[in-house]
From TrEMBL:
It catalyses: [phosphatase 2A protein]-C-terminal L-leucine methyl ester + H2O = [phosphatase 2A protein]-C-terminal L-leucine + methanol + H(+). Keywords: Hydrolase, Serine esterase. Pfam families: Abhydrolase_6 (PF12697). This is Protein phosphatase methylesterase 1. It comes from Penicillium flavigenum. SUPFAM superfamilies: alpha/beta-Hydrolases (SSF53474). GO terms for molecular function: protein methylesterase activity.
């Protein structure tokens, strides 16, 4: 039927003249326009000329079932679980077919973003812990950005952001760790100490799934781990002294780095600290919906790529490149899966961390405001501010930056913008670039010397 119609074909229906216009001479795509019968030939010609400029193919709408799934998967629990928050707006293109177009893309490796990885062993409390970190060492007197991820995430959460920081500050170092029970950090009892010096994500997860190691993700333990990793990295790299440090923490990581800053365990080497998208008030509120969220997200995936696609389709991570870099460390393939059609499961059992949820965030706002050093709070929305932080912001106690177009993973959704903010934040707190005005006495002495007199006005010539 379409082949029989011409671009000037018109039908009169209920007082309207309906045109079927071909949008391009090289395509079979048509557009339909209707107008009153009394429209002049000039008006009709003008309408045709405008319609001819339409694109040959309009974007297809995503099935509504996908939108419903995405809405259920995004929730206010994001401040706790490091999951995405879906907030509809005209600029977010919720109906764009991004998932299918990107599903064929492969995952990215840590070597695309960091110079090396370190495995740092320690024996403590009848446990053998091999902590895993990604590292790009600083050069000269450049700073070291120390990154701590959120619950259920990994050190590769900061991969794309680290790359962008290095573009702005080429000599800066990046240290991004896998917390215990996350990524490739492995814990075993001393009796079953692993002989693998570089365990995989699957090996680390399976070693802990035996139940022989008691889960301990208390704030005190995680803070101790972070400080230990920093000093152990210094020893491994042979640094005579620590470089200047900027702590950066996302979600749970924000609570950890704030606790470390408040305790002052890094001394004067801590220049400043930045907390990404977590505040005490919203995090505590999110505890009420956390269990419901965990019960609705997928527990298994048929492949690694399907896990990456779920993160982007649900808008948990809105940057496909970052998802390809970070998601592979969040999943592992079971050697003997209970469901062979879906062998990929989560590395971290977030449900098992429930006893520690409240411990992570109680008192966070007060510690953030009271700790020494420069302070930055980077949020995805101002609605996350609680009363204490609002008062602190009005008093100018910290820097506030908001990325309204980002989700909970602000550093993954907007890595370039986050990197620029962090680089500028460092520059404002860099002591080496701070030039103090000379003392008044020194200025007077210098002026006196230029006049040929001493500081007290006595002649400075040779004695005879």
């Amino acid at each position: 039927m379409v082949d029989a119609l011409q671009s000037d074909t018109a039908l009169d229906v209920n007082g309207l003249q309906i045109f079927l216009l071909q949008t391009s001479s090289a395509s079979r795509d048509f557009a339909i326009v209707w107008c009153p019968l009394e429209m002049s030939d000039l008006q009709k010609s003008f309408a045709k000329s405008k319609l001819a400029k339409f694109p040959p193919e309009a974007p297809m709408a995503e099935p509504m079932s996908h939108l419903e799934d995405a809405y259920e998967e995004g929730s206010s629990a994001s401040s706790l679980s490091s999951t995405g928050t879906m907030v509809p707006s005209p600029t977010r293109q919720l109906f764009a077919r991004t998932g299918r177009r990107q599903s064929s893309q492969t995952s990215l490796t840590w070597t695309d973003y960091f110079d090396q990885e370190l495995f740092l062993p320690e024996e403590v409390d009848n446990l053998h812990i091999v902590r895993h970190v990604y590292l790009t060492p600083p050069t000269d007197a450049a700073p070291l950005f120390v990154m701590h991820h959120g619950a259920g995430s990994s050190g590769l959460s900061f991969a794309t952001c680290a790359e962008e920081i290095r573009k702005i500050l080429p000599k800066a170092g990046i240290l991004s760790l896998d917390a215990r029970s996350h990524g490739r950090t492995i814990m075993t009892t001393l009796d079953n100490k692993t002989v693998d010096e570089a365990p995989s994500t699957a090996a680390a997860a399976q070693a802990e799934s035996s139940g022989q190691v008691e889960l301990d993700l208390s704030l005190e333990t995680l803070s101790r781990d972070l400080v230990h990793v920093i000093y152990q990295t210094q020893t491994r790299m042979g640094w005579e002294k620590l470089p200047d440090i900027i702590l950066v923490g996302h979600s749970l990581g924000g609570a950890v780095i704030t606790d470390v800053a408040k305790k002052g365990e890094l001394g004067p080497k801590l220049l400043a600290y930045a907390v990404l998208d977590v505040v005490e008030g919203s995090a505590m509120d999110a505890l009420q919906s956390m269990e419901k969220y965990l019960s609705t997200r997928p527990t298994r995936f048929p492949s690694l790529l399907s896990g990456i696609e779920w993160h982007t389709r649900s808008r948990t991570i809105r940057n496909t490149t970052s998802a390809r870099a970070s998601v592979p460390s969040l999943l592992y393939e079971e050697s003997e899966p209970s469901d062979p059609s879906r062998p990929w499961v989560w590395r971290t059992n977030l449900s098992a961390t429930k006893p520690f949820w409240e411990n992570w965030f109680v008192g966070l706002s007060r510690k953030f405001l009271d700790a020494r050093g420069g302070k930055l709070l980077l949020l995805a929305g101002t609605d996350r501010l609680d009363k204490e932080l609002m008062i602190g912001q009005m008093q100018g106690k910290y820097q506030l930056q908001v990325f309204p177009e980002a989700g909970h993973f602000v550093h993954e959704d907007q890595p370039a913008k986050t990197a620029q903010i962090l680089a500028d934040f460092y520059r404002r707190n860099d002591r080496s670039a701070l030039v103090l005005p000379p003392k008044v006495a020194d200025m007077q002495a210098s002026a006196a010397m230029k006049k040929g007199t001493g500081a007290l006005g006595a002649p400075t010539g040779h004695l005879r």
